[in-house]
Amino acid sequence: MKDAPVVVDSLTAGYPGVTALEEVSLRLQSGRITALLGANGSGKSTLFSALLGLVPDLRGTVRIFGRDSAQARRRNLVSYVPQHEQVDPTFPITVEQVVMMGRYPHMGFLRVARSQDRAAVEKALAQTQLSAYRRRSVGELSGGQRKRAFVARALAQGAPLMLLDEPFAGVDRGSEALIIEVLHALREAGTTVLISTHHLEGVHQLADQVVLLHRRVLAAGPPDEVLTDEQLARAFGEALR
Ligand SMILES: Nc1ncnc2c1ncn2[C@@H]1O[C@H](COP(=O)(O)OP(=O)(O)OP(=O)(O)O)[C@@H](O)[C@H]1O
């Protein structure tokens, strides 16, 4: 699978004194949703950082649509929904302004929004059911609404690969269902999605492929093959049984 949208080979990465990922190799399938499953501290966020070119001590290779991560970001091939959004509640940035930030890679230096930018923002707000909240300050939103705003920013960006780090953490059931709906619509449109979670519940409905991570890749493949009691015990420990 030479032209897989994401190819990671023998990646070892981490932080001073911490090897968070060891000899990780994986391929994402085009136009599919892959769930990255692993316990707390298993290296999920570090893998996202590596895909974004932000992690130190990198050994091995990361290719995104055949390019290195910096080139892929410059060419607007990747959108990212971070686990923790940096929102300063004292800085009144509106939902609409956050979503418009997804369009910055499409704009020139002066960041003047054109009709296609406004249309993409409208569509992303509608898909995440935030149109009525567009003028609301992001700091005033609930956890689920705020997460939807950052999903909307990524949607507006329109990149062919979307990375979402734990988008369901601290999110209400309604927002979770809506985000899943959005991801399934993205898949229909051919976007490749990688989503990390430590919630096992619902993975079968969410994802086409699962990568089980515990510093190394323990297993990868369709949910039915990967989510066996034995593999899950290796990834999450005996407590799960
Ligand atoms: N900035 C950092 N500096 C030092 N060590 C870090 C840093 N970030 C993560 N680590 C360590 O790297 C390892 C992997 O962490 P990582 O955040 O990638 O895991 P995770 O699977 O995303 O966890 P969680 O589900 O809790 O978010 C852990 O041992 C963690 O303590």
Automatic annotation (TrEMBL):
Keywords: ATP-binding, Nucleotide-binding, Transport
Annotated PROSITE patterns: ABC_TRANSPORTER_1, ABC_TRANSPORTER_2
CDD domains in the record: ABC_Metallic_Cations
Matches recorded under InterPro entries: AAA+_ATPase, ABC_transporter-like_ATP-bd, ABC_transporter-like_CS, Metal_Ion_Import_ABC, P-loop_NTPase
Signal peptide annotation: none
Gene Ontology molecular function, alphabetical: ATP binding; ATP hydrolysis activity
PANTHER family cross-referenced by the UniProt entry: IRON TRANSPORT SYSTEM ATP-BINDING PROTEIN HI_0361-RELATED, METAL TRANSPORT SYSTEM ATP-BINDING PROTEIN TM_0124-RELATED
Entry similarity comment: Belongs to the ABC transporter superfamily.
Protein name from the UniProt record: ATP-binding cassette domain-containing protein
